[in-house]
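Annex B. Sample input.
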Amino acid sequence: MKKNAFTLIELLVVIAVIGILATIVAVSVNNARTKARDARRKVDIVQLQKALELYYDANGSYPASGGATSPNIGWSNSNDASWDTLQTALAPYLARLPHDPRESANGWPGGGSQSYAFYSRGYGCDLQWYMLVYRLENAQGIDPGVTACDNTTFRYGGNGANTNVKTVGARAR
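Annex B, continued. Sample output.
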C-alpha cells in the first residue's frame, strides 16, 4: 500500500517560496510607508508656507525665528522649544504646527536629522523673507533653494540633481 505524503524537499521548497514572497511584500510595504511619510512632509511644508503668508499679510513681516532655548541661534526647529514660539505666532492661521513624521530628538535637517527648520533673520531684510528646511527619506529632485533679500542663495541640499534635503521660502512682495 502506497502512502501519500510530502517529502522533506517539497516542504523546504514551499517554505522557501513563502519566505521569498513574504520578503517581497515586506519591502513593498516599507517603501509605501516611506513614500507616505515623504508626501506628508511636503503637505506639512505647504501648510506652513500658507500660514506664513497669512501672517505676513496681517502683520507686514514674517514671524521672528529662533528662541531663547534654540540650540541654533536664529533658527526655529520642530524638535526643540523654539518651535513653540513659532506655534504661538502662527496659532491664528494654523491650529497646530506640524512635526516631521519621524522626528529626531535633536539636530536639524541640513545636518542629517528628521525635523523641520524655519529661519527669517537678516540677509538684507530682517523678517521680510524666510526659509524652511526639511529632509525627505528618499532623494527627489533638486533642492529649489531660496534667495534672501541681499541675493544670498541658500540650498542646504546642495546643487545636485537629486537630493533629500529641501530648502524653500519666500521674500516679501
